[in-house]
Design brief:
- Chain B: Belongs to the ABC-2 integral membrane protein family.
- Chain B: InterPro entries: ABC2_TM (IPR013525), ABC2_TM_bact-type (IPR047817), ABC_2_transport (IPR000412), Nod_factor_ABC_transporter (IPR051784).
- The complex is a heterodimer of chains A (311) and B (257).
- Chain A is built from eleven helices and 14 strands.
- Chain A has 311 residues and is α/β, with parallel strands linked by helices.
- Chain A folds into two domains: 222 residues, Rossmann fold, CATH 3.40.50; 65 residues, Alpha-Beta Plaits.
- In chain A, β4 and β5 form a beta hairpin.
- Chain A starts with a strand and ends in a 5-residue tail after the last helix.
- Chain B has one domain.
- Chain B is built from eleven helices and no strands.
- Helices cover 79% and strands 0% of the residues of chain B.
- With 257 residues, chain B is mostly helical.
- The chains are: A alpha/beta (311), B mainly alpha (257).
- Chains A and B meet through α2 and α3 of A and α1 and α5 of B.
Chain lengths: 311, 257
């Protein structure tokens, strides 16, 4: 076990009937990083997370959390992480304070410690105002915050978040991101699943793209984007008669693949330095162009290129 | 990690879980319906409605109806265990419980412990209502206490059965409607409210076979004779057998979830 790894996953597999939900998955999560599990619906993200967090028994494979095998030292491993599930796993009928107290006690804190920690977390997650209200009156964002607060009672060094912002409005989502970044700043290791590419791009240091239970790609968001291809230059030739000339110029200066749609041309640049010669040559040949844009590949492009999904 | 975590302690975890279940009851007064409002309502309503018709007057009817309502309330309170467990399993909260470094059996044990407190409340409410209506059993307070404990034990034994149903059922609503129907049929097709000899033959056969009839008969005999009887021993042994059979089954079903 290397000291840098918070989690080691080896050859993890799970079958539900005829459906191979997770197939021979192996990866490491480094200490202190945000690791994203990205994939379309039904790709096996949640199943993988449930196996790592000991909620589901794998058919095959091994998971180590800070060096502890979850199969043989499950209870020990469980004391090292906090989990926020996909569905709010807090008690609806009781108040936020009572929820925190009960979970603090279940985590083994003494009554006094539980009380102190509850007060701290209520303040940290701005829930003091509604601490004694029943959760029925909570908004979705408040519920998620409480849910996360409950996962953080023991200040775990490792935090699992299963789709932490699904169903939240953009403002609450941004708040959640700020909270997650705060945890990272405190040195926590975070594993999150998401189907939002923007979220993965914003938060994750490294991503595992999963599709049909298999690991499709592992890397930083930048690496994944690079995979799909470089920067794309797009412009429209003002006069139809000059399209041919423009195509010739592109062939000479870039040598990349050119796509044409009427008077609109786009070409993939292998390096950004190719941009200036293209524009200069066009100007010298007096080919007037407009609606010029240079776009970096998005994680969306990477996602589409890498996954098939169920439909 | 600067927060001290002790390795899970079964007793402490169970106590916390029981506390949680009681808190839920306190916050949701409708969960008190079956243990407080129902026995009071049924005792008063049935007592004054049927007392005259069945026993001549309300006073004479009380020795019949008080044990009847007591048994019915126990059955009803016990049937709540199943739907509560199912609700927990259906919400995400069980995942949270399972991911905590706590005693594995605590959520189930806490539920059954909290249920026994509900049963105690239900028994006290039923007996007190009877007393306020003028019920004065000849056997004295000691034997009333014995009857209360026997009823609570029977109810607790049954809550294992309902807990198993809750764990095996697909939805909380299934458990609820099944529990309600079971409660209604078992408590009414018995000797709880009417003398068995007034029933038609087929109904009487059913009422005679009904376990609730045995419990009620046992309680009435204790109160009438002021002593432990053959019937009450039978009920106690049956309760022990139910626990011995259903507790392992319930734990098995719980582990499977």
């Amino acid at each position: 076990m290397s000291e840098e790894n918070a989690i080691e996953v080896r050859h993890l597999s799970k079958r539900f009937g005829d459906n191979l939900a997770v197939a021979d998955l192996s990866f490491n999560v480094h200490r202190g990083e945000v690791f994203g599990l990205l994939g379309p619906n039904g790709a096996g993200k949640t199943t993988t997370l449930r196996m790592i967090t000991t909620l589901l028994k794998p058919d095959a494979g091994q998971v180590k959390i800070f060096g502890h095998d979850t199969a043989t030292e499950g209870r020990w491993a469980r004391s090292l992480f906090g989990l926020t599930g996909q569905y709010a796993s807090v008690d609806e009928d009781i108040s936020a304070r009572e929820n925190l107290m009960i979970f603090a006690r279940l985590n083994g804190l003494s009554r006094a410690d539980a009380k102190a920690r509850t007060a701290e977390l209520l303040a940290e997650f701005s829930l003091e105002q509604s601490a004694d209200k029943a959760l029925k009156h909570f908004s979705g964002g408040m519920r998620r915050r409480l849910d996360l607060a409950v996962s953080l009672i023991t200040r775990p060094a490792l935090i699992f978040l299963d789709e932490p912002t699904t169903g939240l409005d953009p403002r609450t989502r941004t708040q959640m991101w700020t909270t997650i970044r705060g945890l990272v700043a405190q040195g926590s290791t975070i594993v999150l699943t998401t189907q939002y590419l923007e979220e993965a791009d914003q938060l994750a240091d490294r991503l595992a793209v999963i599709d049909h239970g298999k690991l499709v790609k592992l890397g930083t968001p930048a690496e994944l984007k690079q995979q799909v291809g470089g920067t794309v230059l797009t412009f429209t030739v003002n006069q139809a008669s000059q399209v041919k000339a423009a195509l010739r110029i592109l062939a000479q200066t870039v040598a990349g693949k050119v796509r044409q749609s009427g008077q609109q041309l786009s070409v993939t640049l292998s390096q950004l330095t190719q941009l200036t010669p293209v524009l200069e040559t066009l100007k010298r040949a007096q080919v007037a162009v407009s609606r010029l844009s240079v776009t970096e590949p998005s994680l969306d492009d990477a996602f589409m290129a890498l996954t098939v999904g169920q439909n | 990690m600067d927060v001290q975590t002790h390795s899970g302690n079964v007793v402490m975890n169970t106590a916390t879980m029981a506390y949680r279940n009681l808190l839920k009851t306190v916050h949701n007064p409708d969960r008190f319906m079956d243990v407080i409002i129902q026995p009071v309502l049924f005792m008063v309503m049935f007592g004054y409605l049927f007392g005259g018709a069945i026993a001549g007057n309300v006073q004479a009817y009380l020795p019949t109806i008080v044990p009847g309502i007591l048994a019915q309330t126990m059955l009803s309170a016990a049937s709540g265990s199943g739907s509560q467990l199912r609700e927990d399993l259906d919400s995400g909260i069980f995942d949270r419980f399972k991911s905590l470094p706590m005693a594995h059996i605590a959520p189930l044990a806490g539920q059954l412990f909290a249920d026994s407190l509900r049963l105690v409340i239900a028994a006290i409410t039923s007996l007190t209502t009877g007393f306020l209506m003028g019920w004065r059993p000849a056997a004295g307070f000691g034997w009333v206490l014995v009857c209360g404990l026997l009823a609570i034990f029977t109810g607790w034994a049954l809550s294992w059965v309902f807990a198993l149903l809750g764990l095996l059922a697909k939805q909380a609503t299934t458990v609820q409607s099944f529990s309600l129907i079971t409660m209604l049929v078992l408590s009414f097709v018995s000797n709880a409210f009417v003398p068995l000899k007034s029933l038609t033959k087929p109904l009487r056969v059913l009422a005679d076979l009904n376990p609730v009839t045995y419990v009620i008969t046992a309680i009435r005999q204790i109160l009438a004779t002021g002593g432990w009887t053959h019937e009450s021993l039978l009920v106690l042994v049956a309760g022990v057998i139910i626990v011995l059979v259903f507790a392992p089954l319930t734990v098995w079903a719980y582990d499977r979830n």
